[in-house]
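STRUCTURE:
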């Protein structure tokens, strides 16, 4: 059994390897309002485009809305982040996604970050492996390459 809580992953038989920190951002078309409050008060942009109901960042955002007494008037559930980004680029709502999945669109000015995500927790990507009494060079190489790949794709221009 693996237990994941605010202090991390707890399991004596599993070795955890943190691959990346994932900042969660609110994103919309570059012509959308700049703040979440303005976006939610806009008839055109108060349309939450997101993935499946069990998505961690979807749940986090819906909890944020509920605890701050904010409401979304329309939800559209799509099957992939690419489909969500297409909706947003076509100026059809907003979403809450990991920054690394929308970095290219933000840097090319097709999407922008909406102010209001400052309270969102950072999410982490892990690789989990069985603890062994010996070194496994293949696993070590995989972890090393995964960290390099994730780091390369996590760079954020400020």
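SEQUENCE:
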């Amino acid at each position: 059994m693996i237990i994941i809580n605010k202090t991390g992953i707890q399991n004596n038989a599993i070795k955890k390897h943190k691959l990346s920190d994932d900042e969660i951002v609110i994103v919309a078309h570059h012509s959308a309002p700049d703040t979440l409050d303005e976006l939610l008060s806009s008839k055109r942009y108060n349309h939450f485009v997101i993935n499946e109901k069990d998505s961690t960042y979807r749940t986090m955002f819906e909890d944020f809305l509920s605890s701050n007494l904010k409401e979304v008037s329309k939800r559209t559930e799509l099957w992939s982040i690419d489909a969500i980004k297409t909706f947003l680029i076509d100026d059809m709502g907003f979403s809450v996604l990991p920054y690394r999945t929308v970095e290219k669109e933000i840097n090319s000015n097709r999407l922008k970050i909406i102010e209001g995500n400052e309270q969102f927790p950072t999410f982490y990507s892990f690789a989990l492996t069985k603890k062994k009494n010996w070194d496994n060079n293949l696993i070590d190489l995989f972890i090393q390459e995964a960290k390099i790949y994730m780091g390369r794709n996590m760079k954020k221009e400020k």
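REMARK: The first strand starts at residue 3 and ends at 5.
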